[in-house]
Write a structure and sequence with these properties.
The chain contains seven helices and nine strands, in the order ααβααββαββααββββ. By secondary structure, it is α+β, with helices and mostly antiparallel strands. The chain has two domains: about 70 residues; about 140 residues, Heat Shock Protein 90.
Length: about 230
Amino acid sequence: MNPEHEDNDRLDRLELAHALRTPLTSALLATGILEDEALGALNDAQREVVASIVADLERLSRLVDDGLKTAALGAYAGPLERRRVSLAALAAEAIEPLMRQSRARRVRIELAVEEAAVLVDPIKVRWVIASLVGNALRFAQRRVILALRNDGATATLTVNDDGPGIAPAVAARVFDREGPGPTLYLVREIVEAHGGRIALVEGEAGGTRFDVRLPVASTSWNPAGGEDE
């Protein structure tokens, strides 16, 4: 199989796993309400059925998380294939598969982007953006903001949701290899491999905010000869 097709296939699997994650989370929350009898008492037969559904959903949730980890490792594998691309266009491509999920959850994805040319592996950076926005959709209440600023030397891509935020103890290890998220360690690895940085910072209106900083591509760069003198 063509290497680019293999990478695209891995990205398709990642997008599928992210698409499954949100309805699974919603189903677990709903069945948890039933199991806690918040909507009324259950008889023994009903309680047994709900407990069985919860157990099945938890198993499926673990499988999805394992799939995310495996697919993410595959997406990161291999050398970087750098190309000069528009980061704004890459961001738009990354979120397009997530728009249906956004509409289903009634969460707006708001774009506020400036143009910025970067020298990156487009497949891997597109996956980074999709991962951050997909995670934000899981916890957002009404909106996710995807912003891109270009100061001439650095392009800063920000993903900010209005969810409950991350507890300080969890935030301290969010990028660790054995941290709480299935993909954030790999997101950091990819960003740093491009000479960039990712940081978890305090969101403007609560929630969680990630800032990704990448070097802006030199206008003299060309794919055949590298940087022109």
